Task: structure prediction
Amino acid sequence: MIVISWVMLLLGSAFCLIGTLGLMRLPDFYSRVHAASIIDSMGTILVLLGLLVQTQDILVIAKLILILLFMMLTGPTAVHALAHTASLKEKDSEPDSASQLS
Amino acid sequence: MFTVTFIAILIVMFFLLIRVALGPTVFDRILAVNTFGTAIVLLIALFGFLVDRPDFLDIALLYALTNFISTIAVLKLFRYKRLGKAADR
Amino acid sequence: MDIAILVNFSLLTLMMLVVVVLIRLKSLLGVALTNGIYSLLSAGLFVTMDAVDVAFTEAAVGAGITTVLLLGTIAVTGMEQTVSRHGKFLPLVVIFITGAALIYGTLDMPPFGDPKAPIHTHVAPHYLTESTNEIGIPNVVTSVLASYRGYDTLGEVIVIFTAAIGVLLLLGKTVGKRNK
Result:
């Protein structure tokens, strides 16, 4: 059980680091959204599941599942809204007013 | 083993901060701040396990919700140019 | 390495970097967002100090409400920083004088973590030893905030409530006028 937890934690941190690498190196905003979603999805899920198998306490397990649930609901929603707003801005703004965003 | 993940998340936070500083568009900054919130939720959950006090998970839960609210507020500001009232398109 | 030292060191370093970013940023929206990061980090620091209530407050007020209020202000005033017309010399002098006064004020304080300091000898031992019997809450910080200093906390709540009403009146009025 402990071994499973360690593997999950290590994999989760590896995914977080890969996502960060992408966030730093990828060329434009929409590709960086993909990199950030690696941290938001795989990193979070694996780290929280790794913590989940560490404990026996039912209250702690319930809280971890709640956090996982909220993250799964809110993370994609926020990032989707972000990318949608960015695409709308890009569509209806002239080139000279696009520089206003930076 | 918690320490390894803890340090990994700290590195992630450091680079996210650099992304906030660099920009280039404001959406990159919002994305980095949103992901920073995720990282700090993980950090506090891990810290609770590191010092063997999992009560700290309550705060991690609160952060997960607060982070979502502020991101949506920013995006509403962008879409409708104001925060107070319901949008008329 | 001791984990508490690692946490304190890394969180404080990150907070310092956030301040550097805050100084360098020109976009006001970026400044508002970075402010939220600073609040989140300081709330994490409060968590490591076991002051869970303070961390709750910092997360809700600092990272949540303050960010939204700053964004509301930006929505009213515009997104770009205006170039200041006065010179750079006078603000520097004011900042140096204020900083020197603050550092002078800390000279009389006892060293950090000194067990003989007045704050650790007056009522703190009583709180630490008796709070479980008298209040019955496991966290000492919570029992101090909510019970021993209950009136103090009530006063703080009144101050925050008044400030919130003032801000809402200011922002709501301006936004309403612009809409007409």
Notes: The interface with chain B takes residues 3-4, 6-7, 10, 14, 17-18, 21, 24-25, 27, 29-30, 33-34, 36-37, 40-41, 43-44, 47-48, 52, 55-56, 59-60, 63-64, 67-68, 71-72, 74-75, 171-172, 175-176, 179 of chain C (CB under 8 Å). Residues 122-180 of chain C form one domain. Chain C has a mean pLDDT of 81. The two ends of chain C are 62 Å apart (CA to CA).
